Amino acid sequence: MFLKTFLICIVCVFIAISCEKKPTIRVALAASLLPPMEEIAQRFEAETGHQVDLIPAASGVLSTQILSGAPYDIFLSANKIYPDALRQAQKGIEAPKLLIRGKLAFWSADPIEPETIPSFLQTHKGRIAIADTSLAPYGVASVHYLRTQGLLDTLRGQLVFGENISQTNLMIASDAVTVGFSASSALFHPSLKDHGHWQVIEGQVVPQWALLLTATSSSKSFWTYLFSPQAKKVFEKFGYVEENDRMSG
User: Fold this and answer.
1) How confident is the model over 20-51, as pLDDT tens digits?
2) Among 17-26, 89-98, 161-170, 196-205, which stretch is predicted with the lowest mean pLDDT?
3) Is residue 123 within 8 Å of 112, Cβ to Cβ?
4) CA of 113: how far to CAs of 107, 139, 199, in Å?
5) Model-level pTM?
6) Measured between alpha carbons, how far is residue 238 from residues 91, 103, 164, 241 in Å?
7) 102-205 has which CATH code?
8) Residue 14 half-sphere exposure toward CB, CA atoms < 13 A
9) Topology of 20-101+207-237 in CATH?
10) Where are the domains of the chain?
């Protein structure tokens, strides 16, 4: 009788262990990275059984949340400034690591040849959607492009700001504007790729940086997966390029 009871207990323990829910990995990411990261997270979950919780927002907003103690495991930023500041504030297991490079994209309701974008903008009278320059690095890249084209002062009063790329894309998708700047990943998003007309702004590259915030086995596992060939293929599918890849296409 004792042996039978003991064996039943052992079986119950094994069942409990096998059914134990693996810890959720919380990833704070720049909103521009959401399209490829959704696919990467789904693949990782299918392969490992871990659950990945993606929290998209402007890089600056997420950085502030992390400094305030938000329980994130990994931070993916659209620039290096925020991860560096967090590392200096003792937030992070190791130095920030370059993940991938994105590109700036131009959207218009009507077709425009890439070489005519500056002249088109010079005479454009409507609103122009960009991401918030104080929070979103793609907003900074948009303003940099306008400045290099000598258009910033002319168009400053026409700029309307989304807090992050997701909000900027919402303005584009809802036709609240007829012109806007976004991340090149928008060209591959199901709800945006066939909406209006997209052009990649060559030479406007936005490096995406990663910071590991916790040292749990699950967070380290996903961290490793982010830099794997499998994840690279997904990033490339959404228009991102590696550091040593040519910034063309």
Assistant:
1) 567 899 999 999 899 999 999 999 999 999 99
2) 17-26
3) no
4) 11, 22, 8
5) 0.81
6) 29, 11, 18, 9
7) 3.40.190.10
8) 6
9) D-Maltodextrin-Binding Protein; domain 2 (3.40.190)
10) 20-101+207-237, 102-205
